[in-house]
Design a protein that fits this description.
Strand content: 5-15%
Distance between the termini: 190 Å
Strand order of the largest sheet: 2-3-4
Shape: elongated
Number of domains: 3
Number of strands: 5
Order of helices and strands: HHEEEHHEHEHHHHH
Coiled coil: 4-52
Number of helices: 10
Mean pLDDT: 68
Keywords: Coiled coil
Helix content: 40-55%
Structural class: mainly alpha
Low-confidence stretches: 95-115, 264-275, 323-331
Region (Disordered): 57-90, 225-277, 292-331
């Protein structure tokens, strides 16, 4: 009887555990169903995002193949034809140099879509999209499109033209950007040449020239004259006009030494001209030669002063000492 009771008790325990495991399995199956649904939803979202990304990539690829320059209107003739028929705005070509000096970097411009007043490339003049057409602009006051020598760099865009206008032409009453652009000289440029210049290549239909200012020579001459006028003259400084015999003699002696040294250097001392680069040994030789010349002149001056004393600069005491007693007049 006892064994039968134990058997029924064990069966009851195992049955309870089996029911518990069944309920746990049902709960796990339910969770797996929910996770499967969530996985399917995530897969659908990923597929939708990939589809949108593909459509966006196709759209950007189509935009990249379209030309960046604005198309010409049907009623507007080609820029090259118009440029040939219209008279040139240039006064003359005397101020145009033959070959411009490009900048150190020859890489294409990074900005492929310029703004209205932006320069398309640093190696070329200011070409902007103005009034519905590509045009090269330069200063309408002095006719320059570059900085003054020795820089020889093109003015960088409309901002550079505005800075040039405010700095060089200070007498202008209106110094705004619009006024500087409105007064600028222009030359039409075709879209083909614009694309070539944007890529860093020379244009085919127009000549790239560096235009110097019309009044560059006059301004340089005025600056030189102003600089020369600052040098003091004997009239401006009376002290410079008064020279004693000693200072005149010393000045002439220094001038002679300088002339002898220049003649020695110019005649190719030791095989080296005045324009060549001298070595250390040749410099010592030159100094030695100048010292010999200076010593000879100094010795000659001393001999001359002993044999022929200078009586033009005596004091009254020296005159009394040199008088002969036999020539004295008794009162």
């Amino acid at each position: 009887m006892e064994a039968l009771r134990q058997f029924y008790g064990e069966v009851s325990r195992l049955t309870a555990e089996a029911d518990l495991l069944k309920r746990e399995r049902e709960r796990i199956d339910l969770q797996m169903t929910d996770l499967s649904k969530a996985r399917d939803k995530v897969n659908r979202d990923l597929a939708q995002i990939e589809s949108q990304s593909l459509d966006l990539a196709k759209e950007y690829a189509a935009r990249a193949q379209q030309p960046t320059t604005p198309p010409l209107s049907d009623d507007t003739p080609p820029p090259s034809t118009t440029a040939n028929k219209q008279p040139s705005l240039e006064i003359d070509s005397d101020h145009i140099t033959a070959t411009p000096r490009s900048r150190s970097d020859a890489t294409p411009a990074t900005n492929t879509v310029p703004t209205e007043l932006d320069i398309i490339h640093d190696n070329f003049p200011t070409v902007v999209f103005l009034d519905g057409a590509w045009s090269e602009i330069w200063c309408g006051r002095c006719g320059t499109n570059c900085r003054a020598p020795p820089h020889k760099l093109f003015i960088t865009g409309a901002d550079g033209l505005h800075k040039h206008w405010c700095r060089i032409h200070k007498d202008e009453l209106i110094k705004t950007l619009d006024h500087a652009i409105g007064a600028a000289r222009r030359r039409l440029v075709s879209a083909t040449d614009v694309e070539r210049m944007r890529a860093g290549e020379p244009p085919l239909e127009v000549a790239i020239t560096m235009r110097l200012a019309d009044d560059l020579v006059q301004r340089k001459a005025a600056a030189l004259a102003a600089k020369t006028s600052k040098i003091p003259t004997p009239n401006d400084s009376p002290e410079l006009g008064r020279a004693t015999p000693d200072t005149a003699t010393n000045g002439s002696r220094s001038l002679k030494r300088k002339e002898v040294a220049e003649d020695t250097a110019g005649s190719g001392l030791h095989g080296v001209g005045s324009t060549g680069k001298m070595t250390t040994y040749e410099q010592f030789q030159k100094v030695e030669a100048e010292a010999k010349v200076g010593g000879a002149l100094e010795a000659k001056r001393r001999r001359t002063s002993v044999e022929h004393p200078n009586f033009t600069n005596r004091s009254p005491e020296e005159d009394e000492e040199l008088q002969d007693p036999s020539w004295s007049v008794e009162g």
